[in-house]
Each structure stands twice: as structure tokens, then as C-alpha cells.
TrEMBL record:
Name assigned to this protein: LPS-assembly protein LptD
Gene this protein is translated from: lptD_1
GO cellular component annotations of the record: cell outer membrane; transporter complex
Organism: Halomonas elongata
Source superkingdom: Bacteria
């Protein structure tokens, strides 16, 4: 396993990962990411992933992926105003010519309350890696409303924002 991180300057960074099996003399996976982070809090991420057929070991040998996996991804966070953040992202399966995930979200933060709203559509592989025939598309609209100092209603979308957009640092809605 080789991983190379390079902080080019205050705004740009890259990461390259490479997994090579020296016993089989082959590359099993590789990935490349580039990230731009502005001082104002804006973030842009672009990524590429490739995995060899059957690389992800399954407990059931009949459930081994039978194709190489090639994915592209992009995500962003944009601080539109002092209190308003916008996020978005996509993950595309180039091997099977389909969108794996797409999302859009907004966060509003005021002195007394906070609001996070996320729309997301994703592929659920139903636990079978060897075929895409039984995959289903799920979608949802997720809302979190917080009264500062009193608690909130809804799921923990804040952690989701940070995982969906690497480098995103939103306003802590639980803090007054």
C-alpha cells in the first residue's frame, strides 16, 4: 500500500493511493483525489477510483464482483452567505454507466436556531457485489431543525455533510 499526500499550497492538496499485490504482481486498486479549499470555507473535491475485479473479498465466493470497478466523484461546499452553506455531490460508476449517488443540501444557521436539509439519491446493492441486476435506487429528503441550547429534531445530518464533502467545516448547530 502506497499513499502520497501533497499539500501544494494553502488551498490545494492531492492524495494518491495505490495497492499492489507483489505475490500476484498486479495492481488491485488505485485512487486519486484533488481538493481545493478557499479561506472563505468553500471546498471542491474531485476523485477517481479503480478496483480490480474480485478485489473486495466476499464471505460467499459466489458474491464476488465479476467486473473491474471504475468510479468518478465530485463534491462541493459553498458558503453563500455568513449563515448559509450549500453542498452537493455525485459519484458515478463508469463501468456500469450509472450514477451511484447524488446529493444536494443546505444549512442555515442563526443565533437561535439551525436548519439542515439534504436530498439524496443512491444505489443500494442489496448486499450482492457480483451483479447489478438486483440493485435498487433509494432516495430521501432529510431534515434537521435545532433550537440553540434546547436540542433538535431530526437525524444527525451534520456528520453526513462532513462525510459527503471531505474538507467541509460547517457551523456547529448545537453551539450558541
Amino acid at each position: 500500500m502506497t499513499q502520497l499526500d501533497w499539500q501544494i499550497d494553502d488551498h490545494w492538496r492531492t492524495r494518491w493511493e495505490w495497492l499492489y499485490d507483489d505475490h500476484k504482481s498486479r495492481t488491485e486498486s488505485t485512487g486519486f483525489d484533488v481538493q481545493y479549499r478557499a479561506e472563505a470555507g468553500h471546498v471542491l473535491n474531485l476523485g477517481y477510483r479503480w478496483q480490480l475485479e474480485g478485489f473486495e473479498p466476499a464471505e460467499d465466493l459466489e458474491d464476488t464482483r465479476t467486473y473491474d470497478l471504475e468510479e468518478f466523484s465530485a463534491s462541493f461546499a459553498y458558503k453563500a452567505m455568513n449563515r448559509l452553506d450549500l453542498i452537493g455531490g455525485v459519484r458515478y460508476d463508469n463501468t456500469n454507466d450509472r450514477m451511484l449517488e447524488q446529493l444536494a443540501g443546505v444549512q442555515w444557521n442563526d443565533c437561535c436556531y439551525g436548519l439542515q436539509l439534504v436530498w439524496r439519491e443512491w444505489i443500494d446493492d442489496e448486499g450482492t457485489a457480483n451483479t447489478i441486476e438486483d440493485d435498487t435506487t433509494d432516495r430521501g429528503l432529510f431534515l434537521r431543525f435545532v433550537f440553540k441550547g434546547l436540542g433538535g429534531v431530526g437525524g444527525e445530518t451534520g456528520d453526513f455533510f462532513a462525510s459527503a464533502v471531505p474538507g467541509y467545516r460547517g457551523t456547529d448547530l448545537d453551539r450558541r
